[in-house]
Amino acid sequence: MLRPSVIQSTRKRRTSNGPTRFLLFSQKSSISRLGLNADDSPDIMLPIQGLKNIRALEFDPVADFLYWIDGKSHVIRRSRDMEPRNFTVGRTGTSPVPPAPQLSHSSLVEGMFEQPGQMQVTTVAVGTGTHPFALALDPYARQLFWSCSQGNLINISSLDGGRPLGILLASGEDRPRHLALHPHLG
To answer: Where is the signal peptide, in residue numbers (predicted)?
Structure first.
């Protein structure tokens, strides 16, 4: 049974193409967007290629970034590209074929990379021996919290590129896993 990660947004879109309210969900190797208004399009897979094992999702409504944990490479990644690509049905009628090549990312690539006309993916948090398990995002303080499944830690990084800010909790007995945050405006 699939246990999709789910995030809901009620932010205003900067473009008129996408829905104003949507739900983001993952199914191991893909992230999809479902419009919540009756007149929105059906769920659409986002154009993020090379996803292997998505463990958690977070959405930053201030900067329009989507954050996720890549469970295969044990890093936190982000992408700003929230607009789906148009797909056409192949000749066999069984698989969608993208009209242009999509960017695939590798767990060996750290930092930002971009190709003209394609999406941009950034590795936000990576470290020796870390295994991110859950995410919580504070869009107003511009901070990202994440738990480590092997070190039993709760870490904090800045959203301006993943600069580590420290460890909030380090415990040998407690095993912090899932996180939730209630940010205060201003």
So the answer is: none
- Tens of pLDDT, residues 23-61: 899 988 899 988 888 777 777 888 887 788 898 999 998
Residue 152 DSSP label: T
* Residues 64 and 57: beta-carbon distance below 8 Å: no
b/e for 116-151, b at 16 or more Cβ within 10 A? eebbebbbbbbeeebbbbbbbbbbeeebbbbbbbeb
What pTM did the predictor assign?
0.69
Question: Domain residues of the chain, as ranges?
Answer: 5-83+105-170
Which stretches does DSSP call E strand in the chain?
A: 5-9, 22-26, 31-35, 44-45, 54-60, 65-70, 75-79, 88-89, 96-97, 112-114, 120-125, 132-138, 143-148, 153-158, 164-170
Task: Please name the amino acid found at residue 57.
Answer: L
CATH architecture of 5-83+105-170: 6 Propeller (2.120)
